[in-house]
Amino acid sequence: MLPCSLVELYEGAIKKIKITKTIKDCFGKVQTVQEFLRVEIKPGWKKGTKVIFPEKGDQEPSLIAADVVLLFIIDEKQPDVFTRDGNDLVVKQEISLLEALTGKTVQLKNLDGRNLAILVTEIVKPGYELTIANEGMPISKEARKKGNLRIKFDVRYPSRLTTQQRGRFWVEAS
To answer: Is the pLDDT of residue 171 over 60?
Structure first.
């Protein structure tokens, strides 16, 4: 397992992983050796990515050392508000009923540190999702291409209205 934060998977990172291998000499003596391998995590890598380290496995006389194949089981630790869905980044945004009806500018800090100001002008209904193209995770096999940023809205309804608020609502709705 190679734990990676969502930011590391977004920007790329260098990690070290310790392996243990056995080396058998021509006299049959076996020794155990620990070695650190340098893993260069590319932006956009996903769970299940395989990395091969040629000839870094167990060794025996007159045989070529085995390859070490790492299958990443990525523990996407997410200290921030984003989750990953394929190449998309998903964020939940709670807004008030007033903002849902009149609009709002959503302020988000993307994983690369940029501040995004996203103007929402549509009426937001419960379950509404806004998609911003090319603001998601990098696509590792397609240079300079990214997934989408998806904002899932949760409308916060007031628990009660005053008589004055109810009267104003009915007058404005007429």
So the answer is: no
